[in-house]
Amino acid sequence: MKFIGIIPSRYASTRFPGKPLADLGGKTMIRRVYEQVESTVDRLFVATDDDRIADTVRNFGGNVVMTSPEHRSGTDRCYEAFLKAGAGFDVVINIQGDEPFVQPEQIALLKSCFEQNDTQIATLVKAFDKDGDFEKTLFNPNSPKVVVNNRSEAMYFSRSVIPYIRGKIYTEWLKNQPFYKHIGLYAYRADVLGEITALPQSSLEIAESLEQLRWLENGYKIKVAVTNQETIGIDTPADMERALEYIRNNV
Q1: Cα(169)–Cα(241) distance, rounded to whole angstroms?
Q2: What is the pLDDT of residues 199-228, one digit of tens each?
Q3: Which end of the chain is more exposed for a tag (fewer CB within 10 A), N or C?
Q4: Element spanning 217, H or E
Q5: Mode of pairing for the β-strands spanning 121-127 and 222-226
Q6: pTM, two decimal places
Q7: Using CA atoms, how far apart are residues 1 and 42, in angstroms rounded to an integer?
Q8: Distance (Å, rounded) from C-alpha 158 to C-alpha 156?
């Protein structure tokens, strides 16, 4: 089975314009992401609609696919890039362009999901820390939660806290039930990627602003693997400061 990795990347961002080209400890963010995962897939591309990003990637020796500026999601951008560069690949891995500390082991986990022939889509989750700050983690709508069945498939994703623990005060929920947060990495069989990008937006997707709910509403199954490794997503300049602190202390 052959895996192609695609990093969707756009310059425009309401909260952090130019984020892919921001300097992160001497390297652009897009370069850090690229170098973190390059060895884990058979071929890797950045998919972008911006010449500045494309030139930056080419200058450090990376592969680029130019895509339409009209895409509503990274998944749509991935599919266009796959159509242009993915001939012969079985599985497409969508790697977030603002996750510069994604680990090769996490990509390996995603790939392992496709050892089962019936896997259509795969993603990662991580258990919330039982001793964590529930207000900043469990109740944070920017950190989607996932409920998983006994077949390691996602049952539902929500920005709200799921499941609800009846009979317990919410400050005790993390100590009484495993809660999983979604790690925004996806892998799709190539034919499935084509199918899900052709689907119209669904009511649950619009309500929660989570595109994976469109897939669940239409009967697709999302295989889930559990990672113990934390990632640091960068959505704002404040997140960038935390990432720089991480580099100073760990890299």
Answers
A1: 34
A2: 999 999 999 999 999 999 999 999 999 999
A3: C
A4: helix 212-217
A5: parallel
A6: 0.93
A7: 10
A8: 7
